[in-house]
Amino acid sequence: MTILVAYASKRGSTAEIAETIAATLRREGLGVCLERAEDVQSLDRYDAVVLGSAVYMKRWRGDARHFLKRHRKALRQMPFWVFSSGPVGVPWDDKPEWMKPPKLAEKIEELGGREHIVFGGCLPAEPQGLMEKAMVEGTPKQFRDRRDWADIRGWASAIASDLVAVPS
What is the pLDDT of residues 23-40, one digit of tens each? Predict the structure, then answer.
């Protein structure tokens, strides 16, 4: 069984999450290919897909949105999971309006996605431009990296369990 972990990342934080998911799936004994979403030409050689994107202004990166559109027929025929990353700052758990980009949730359901989860994001260590610098300066240090690596590995392990338990 070969799993594709594809991602769209602006500054590398989402790529690090995808790398952790891929490593966890490998440790669970699955074959994994890790690719940027924009580089994936076909899903023919994969048995399942995990797709992730950074979220800015409640929207996925264009590469991830295009991946869903370009591979919609294949995705309907295989198990796939989706993750978003992005929220930083003070605790955002009580803000459900942020949690999932609205149009994305509908698209994932339409295509038969198994789950969509949101992981915390990470502000850049070296912000570029006034907007990024203002975000970093306005966010307390303890809230600048909201990625929970145990949660990320746990989610990937649950995917591996699902894939091993259910024939593709």
Answer: 999 999 999 999 999 999
